[in-house]
Amino acid sequence: MAYVVTENCIGCKYTDCVSVCPVDCFREGPNMLVIDPDECIDCGVCEPSCPANAIMADIQPGSAQWQAPNREYAALWPRIVAAKDPLPTADALNGKARKFNEHFLPQPAQPSARPEQV
Ligand code: SF4
Ligand code: SF4
After folding, report:
1. How confident is the model at residue 108 (pLDDT cuts 50, 70, 90)?
2. C-alpha dist (Å) from residue 67 to 2, 6, 62, 88, 115
3. What architecture is domain 3-84?
4. Residues 2-39: pLDDT tens digits?
5. Which of 20, 32, 60, 86 could form a disulfide with 90 if both were Cys (CB 3.0 to 4.6 A apart)?
6. Nearest bound ligand to CA 54?
């Protein structure tokens, strides 16, 4: 079992989750984070830390469709170990529907890059 990051993370990057993860298993895309399921120790401390309610255990209803993207992009994106400022669109996109189809950016994040638009 592992925890997964889900759709409402897209466009936010609040990164509160990164601050509390004891094993640094979050990976950073341009406008979303994912969890490496092979490194997650299932401690659960990140779930209540997420202001977007975007983290859930992979046994919870609604998590199944996010397991593959978390595994896929964890292998492609760089590790993030420190919190950073949220994206400018974080509050505006919080809770929006269809974020994956309309805003998801799959390429690896650059170390200090911010997308021009999400
Ligand atoms: S705190 Fe939640 S919304 Fe923010 S980066 Fe982490 S998982 Fe994504
Ligand atoms: S459940 Fe624990 S180990 Fe897994 S991502 Fe969250 S804080 Fe990190």
Report:
1. confident
2. 9, 9, 10, 27, 25
3. 2-Layer Sandwich (3.30)
4. 999 999 999 999 999 999 999 999 999 999 999 999 99
5. 86
6. 1
